[in-house]
Design brief:
InterPro entries: Calcineurin-like_PHP (IPR004843), CNP_phosphodiesterase-III (IPR050884), Metallo-depent_PP-like (IPR029052). The structure is a single chain. It is globular, with a radius of gyration of 21 Å. Strands 1, 2, 12, 13, 14, 15 and 16 form a 7-stranded mixed β-sheet that branches. The chain contains 7 helices and 16 strands. It is about 20% helix and about 25% strand.
Length: about 350
């Protein structure tokens, strides 16, 4: 049903018959079960086949609902008080009263992302395993013909069933990715660089935003994330020449009992016009899970009629070379992707 509703909206309402990229910013499931992951894969696979995509044009990162709570619990065996170390490992234990404590088994802890890998990731990316090592959990997707680089990061690497608020970006994973940029010796300077993760960097559940400075210095102009229930947009300024647009996607699909009252289901359609260097974000809404998608007019200045879209220049550096860009619009002046 979700695929059919989305396809109808894209083809009939938006006149989009081909997508260039599909970006999913986490929370493919509710409880990280095999059935949920398989259903998510069938949705992604059908979109890939029906809109001219392939694995090299799909970016997926896990969300906090995509790590297995049961495996997380198993990674914290009980240790009686008589066998506890003199100093409990910070951030790796759960108090259990006077009887003892639950102390994390790091090897078992890594396995909480195993269902995401086994039942989803390796099917989307055949022959490719999602690393269970947190420092290696980043996705590097470069498209030289389009002058585009996507960097997918796991903002859930330190989250588990007990420590649910530890969203963040693993510093070593980010370092390894940025090292690849530096090793490119300027190859990516004129590309549009887009980072993707799950959690927001603002609000009550926002991550520590310091890592954004490292992305800005390396020329990233756009960040995409999920986790929030309503679409949002923001800007992170590093200096007068560099900054990043931040585009947050709302909830795409949820059972009626899980949908937040008064907040519609949403998705974003991003299109880039290489001639004007403008990125347009169209926000779509669906009031009921079994209903139809429509325009979501929520953007604009106070006192003016709201619009269902907004635009910005994602190229934060003036060095972008239009003559070298090989973006070829799939419709007049546009190239589209769903986020």
């Amino acid at each position: 049903m979700y695929r059919s509703q989305l396809e109808t909206d894209l083809r009939q309402e938006l006149k989009i018959h081909r997508l260039d990229y599909l970006v999913i910013s986490g929370d493919l499931t509710q409880g990280a079960t095999e059935d949920e992951f398989r259903a998510a894969f069938l949705l992604v696979d059908s979109l890939v086949k029906r809109f001219g995509l392939d694995a090299g044009r799909v970016v997926v990162v896990p969300g906090n609902h995509d790590l297995h709570w049961g495996l997380s619990e198993e990674a914290y065996p009980f240790v009686p008080k008589s066998r506890l170390p003199s100093v409990l490992p910070e951030g790796r234990h759960i108090p259990a009263g006077e009887a003892g404590a639950l102390i994390r088994d790091n090897e078992k802890y890594r396995a909480r992302f195993a269902p995401f890998d086994e039942h989803f990731h390796r099917h989307v990316y055949p022959g490719e395993q999602y690393s269970l090592e947190a420092a290696a959990q980043f996705r590097w997707l470069e498209r030289p013909g389009d002058g585009l680089l996507f960097l997918g990061l796991n903002s859930c690497w330190e989250i588990d069933h007990h420590f649910t608020g530890r969203a963040g970006i693993h510093p070593t994973a980010l370092t390894r990715a940025l090292d690849r940029l530096n090793e490119g010796a300027g190859r990516y300077d004129d590309w549009l660089k887009i980072a993707v993760w799950h959690h927001p960097v603002a609000g009550g559940e926002g991550m520590n935003p310091d890592f954004l400075e490292r992305l800005a210095v390396h020329g990233f102009g756009l960040c995409l994330h999920g986790h929030i229930h309503e679409a949002m947009e923001g800007f992170h300024k590093y200096d007068d020449a560099r900054g990043m647009r931040i585009v947050g996607a709302g909830t795409f699909g949820a059972p009626t009992k899980e949908q937040v009252p008064g907040i519609p289901l949403q998705y974003n359609l991003l299109t880039l016009d290489p001639a004007s260097r403008q990125m347009r974000v169209d926000t779509r809404r669906k009031e009921k899970p079994e209903g139809a998608w429509s325009a979501d007019a929520r953007w604009g200045d106070k006192g003016k009629a709201p619009k269902a879209w907004y635009e910005f220049d994602p190229f934060t550096r003036s060095r972008w070379n239009r003559a070298n860009s090989k973006f070829e619009p799939s419709s007049p002046g546009r190239r589209g992707g769903v986020g």
